[in-house]
Write a structure and sequence with these properties.
- This protein is mainly α and 167 residues long.
- The protein has one domain.
- Helix content is 63%, strand content 8%.
- A hairpin with a 2-residue loop joins β1 and β2.
- α1 runs parallel beside α5.
- It is rod-shaped, with a radius of gyration of 27 Å.
Length: 167
């Protein structure tokens, strides 16, 4: 009997193979360095968010000032102020895109801070797989590809042990 599983053809010869899974979210949350990384990212995010809010506040103040002084301004002065507001709005959009956009500074910093931790966890996973002679190890947190998991095949605790972390 052969089975089609997620686009992979599994035949009889895999019966002797050993499979398992880990929960990478669980492992990350248990690692003491993860909290430090999260704290650093939150501090950066708060700082950048404050800068974005300051830009938005400047724009609001410029608009309010323009509205209050509108009757006193010549057409040329009015247009200059409108243009200054547009430039400040462009600056705010550019800042938000540069910092929080796709592949922005926040995303890049997240990758930079998480990469060493992910490498440490991957090395521990590699050692556990070799120790238990696992042919395949799934990540439970990686997506909806696992619809059932038998806890006896969960190797997350062994990875924690390999990392020297007590649960």
């Amino acid at each position: 009997m052969s089975v089609l599983f997620n686009g992979l053809f599994l035949g009889h010869h895999l019966g002797a193979q050993t499979f398992g899974y880990v929960d990478s979210e669980f492992l990350l949350n248990k690692h003491p360095d993860y909290k430090l990384v999260q704290d650093e990212l939150e501090a950066l995010k708060a700082e950048w968010k404050k800068e974005a809010q300051n830009l938005d506040q400047e724009i609001k103040e410029m608009r309010a000032s323009l509205k209050a002084e509108e009757v006193l301004l010549t057409e040329e002065m009015y247009q200059e102020r409108v243009e200054a507001i547009r430039e400040k709005e462009k600056e705010a959009v550019a800042f938000n895109n540069r910092v929080f956009g796709l592949n922005g500074q926040y995303y890049q910093k997240q990758l930079e801070l998480m990469q060493p931790l992910q490498s440490i966890i991957f090395d521990a996973i590699d050692k556990v797989c070799k120790r238990f002679r696992l042919a395949v190890l799934f990540d439970k947190a990686a997506g909806p590809t696992m619809i059932y998991t038998d806890p006896r095949h969960d190797y997350s605790e062994f990875v924690l042990q390999e990392l020297g972390i007590e649960n």
